[in-house]
Write a structure and sequence with these properties.
Mean pLDDT: 87
Catalytic activity: a 4-O-methyl-thymidine in DNA + L-cysteinyl-[protein] = a thymidine in DNA + S-methyl-L-cysteinyl-[protein]; a 6-O-methyl-2'-deoxyguanosine in DNA + L-cysteinyl-[protein] = S-methyl-L-cysteinyl-[protein] + a 2'-deoxyguanosine in DNA
Number of helices: 6
Cofactor: Zn(2+)
CATH superfamily of the largest domain: Winged helix-like DNA-binding domain superfamily/Winged helix DNA-binding domain
Oligomer: single chain
Number of domains: 2
Low-confidence stretches: 1-7
Keywords: DNA damage, DNA repair, DNA-binding, Metal-binding, Methyltransferase, Nucleus, Phosphoprotein, Transferase, Zinc
Distance between the termini: 44 Å
InterPro entries: MethylDNA_cys_MeTrfase_AS, MethylDNA_cys_MeTrfase_DNA-bd, MethylDNA_cys_MeTrfase_DNAb, MethylG_MeTrfase_N, MGMT_N_sf, WH-like_DNA-bd_sf
EC number: 2.1.1.63
């Protein structure tokens, strides 16, 4: 349960499951915003990172609050028609981490706004963009605590060596997302 600011009453949390090319993505949220996106743990990569036509809500489609509708629309576009994600509204977020002022929040917002589809940034570069070039480790911590992966694209943060680095959804998923973006970007070029 997430408590809302007004009077501390808990939100009416709704859950949606999106069947995506990388497996079932669980999304939770309320009228105010998206609480969390849970990625599937992958042990095998889906064949090819080309955009897929299969991206459907398979649970929770009825009575979806607007932030969850926007979230599922955004994720569907990300997997199926990546060129359109820029024209879609990013859903409101309603997670305590993204509401209180902190370096983690600063890092996540910077990542969301400044690191575009098909781009990658090192932990050090992101620390610099977020206003503290010596905080690469703190950036790693911020990536680990990101409650809204894919939309806040922590998969685009890689090591300075070019190695993909760790990812909450696992190494395979990170590499799949990066190659999906690279392929799609080449198609649009």
């Amino acid at each position: 349960q997430v408590n809302s600011k007004q009077g501390g009453s808990p939100c009416k949390e709704k859950h949606v499951v999106l069947l995506s090319p990388v497996g079932k993505i669980e999304i939770s949220g309320c009228e105010t915003g998206v609480h969390e996106i849970k990625l599937p743990k992958m042990s095998v990569l889906p064949a090819g990172a080309e955009s897929s036509v299969t991206c459907e809500v398979c649970e929770g489609a009825e009575e979806m609050p607007e932030p969850l509708q926007q979230c599922t629309a955004w994720l569907r576009a990300y997997f199926c028609e990546p060129a359109t994600t820029g024209t879609l509204p990013v859903p409101a977020f309603h997670h305590p981490l993204l509401q209180r002022d902190s370096f983690t929040r600063q890092v996540l917002w910077t990542l969301l706004n400044d690191v575009k589809f098909g781009e990658a940034v090192s932990y050090k570069q992101l620390a610099h963009l977020a206003g503290n070039s010596r905080a690469a480790r703190a950036v790693g911590g911020a990536m680990r605590s990101n409650p809204i992966p894919i939309i806040i694209p922590c998969h685009r943060v890689i090591r300075s060596s070019g190695d993909s680095g760790n990812y909450g959804g696992g190494q395979l998923l990170k590499e799949w997302l990066l190659s999906h973006e690279k392929l799609q970007k080449q198609k649009l070029a």
